[in-house]
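LtrC-like protein
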Amino acid sequence: MNTNFDAMLNVSAVPQDDRTAAFIAESKNNRNRCYELSEYITAAVATDSQMFQKYLDVQSRFDRYTASNSLLILAQRPEAQKLGDYSYWRNQSAYVKRQERDNPVLIMEPGKEYEREDGTIGTYYNAKKLYEPSQTNLRNYVQEQPEYTDNQLIHALVSNPPVNIIAAEPDQMPEGKGALFAPEENCIYVRKGMNAQEIFQCVTPELALAGFANGNKNYDRNEDAFHAYSTSYMLCKKYGVDTQHFDFSNSSEFFENMEPQEVRAELAKAQESFKAITTRMERTLGQERNANTKQQPQQNREEAR
């Protein structure tokens, strides 16, 4: 075996300016790629009901991501369950495969602020590279899906609500309504006698409407009915509640004649509602998990006596 490495030692240094220029060029190309993908996928979501529902599926899995970044994920890896950058996967004791490094999922994240010519403040956006588990050396990676009891799910749903929630007798409720947000009374009435799935399906859109109303007693629920319906779907999808009754076949009518930027603004409204409710639920579910974790050692000690 040849062990003479002398020939390998004559290597020219890469000027720092060249590295910087290459990095800047790549960053610009990635940003432009994101802008192109965003325009393309926004148009698809606005005009195709199946694409719109696929967008909601992606957003339901990535509740902390903006609507714009969920659109980018939809355009690149719509089936992704988990995404992370180099640092994230290193913390998981994994690394991104060499052959996958040039095939990232690109999203946009805010960078430095700058002053425009008119004196207003803008924000630079940078393209960030993310990778899913199949692009790493992890084998048989399984995304853990927490399982909740009906009691846990409903308790989390109604904890710290933006308005009062009141159980009502069936004959006090409008025909066919399991729950109803009443802005003039700042409360949500919920029909008694429903099971957990029914409660979740009925209460989630009303919670979204209550958030949109934000205390306005003259609020018109029709103004955000589509956003609330979309929010409810994402919540049901995230927490494993049946979604078969949802119908988005007419979603394109809602976005008709909208510019791409307007479409993304409407998607963002539902995403922010979804995130707000999810954040409240996760706080309650997390507290329950922590309480159970603390109780377990005590139970084990008592059983060992």
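thats it. The longest helix spans residues 260-304. DSSP finds nine helices and five strands in the chain. bye
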